[in-house]
Amino acid sequence: MNPETDFRPGLEQLADHYKDILTLLGEDPEREGLVKTPMRVAKAMQTLTRGYTQDPKKVLTDALFEEKYNQMVIVKDIDFFSMCEHHMLPFFGKAHVAYIPNGYITGLSKIARVVDIFSHRLQVQERLTEQIEQCIRETLKPQGVMVVLEARHLCMQMRGVEKQNSMTTTSAYSGVFESAKTRMEFLSLLKVK
Asked: What is the mean pLDDT of residues 42-69?
């Protein structure tokens, strides 16, 4: 699916709802600057939630290779953007993912694609972190997986407490990453430039 040209069923209905929302906010949806806004927003929302139509496990298995390598593989500083399910405002940041293979590796870009798929759904950061870890663990069956997300939430920066410099960090880990020593190795490698 090309997110700029291919849209899911219901696009027109979604645009109609956004036209109603504009009216309920006190705007005139027929005003020149707003005439095309409902459809633009409907298309944007379908793009921002395209993860519902994608299978992250298939992404990993499409590039699965037998390999004896059994040391830590880290893909860090993966940019991600998501939508908070509580306020439907963006949160965004960096994902850092590590796994220790157990006979199989996947294409490095596939790790980033898994992050992308889960982040393109309505989310909370805690669940997003766990979904990435669980998908890699269940699909690759590695010796262990660790995921750390660092994000800024516009629902905290634009409304509510309005704390512009706050950062939220979450982690999920399994297998050999249950060992503090292995977790510390991963965290120290994140700092290497």
From this structure: 96
Cα gap 99→133, rounded to integer Å: 9
- Separation of alpha carbons 9 and 14, rounded Å: 10
44-48 long-range Cβ contacts below 8 angstroms, 24+ apart:
45/14, 46/3, 46/7, 46/8, 46/11, 46/14, 47/3, 47/4, 47/120, 48/81, 48/83, 48/120
How far apart, in whole angstroms, are the C-alpha atoms of residue 67 and residue 46?
38
- 86 in active site: yes
- Residue 189, pLDDT above cutoff 90: yes
Q: How confident is the model at residue 73 (pLDDT cuts 50, 70, 90)?
A: very high
Tokens of 7: 């849209």
| Choice among 87, 150, 157, 185 that is catalytic | 87
Give the residue-averaged pLDDT of 113-140.
98
Residues 6+ apart with CB under 8 A from 24: none
Cβ partners under 8 Å of residue 162, min gap 6:
156
Q: Is 17 a catalytic residue?
A: no
Please state the pTM of the whole predicted model.
Answer: 0.93
Residue among 13, 86, 138, 178 flagged as catalytic? 86
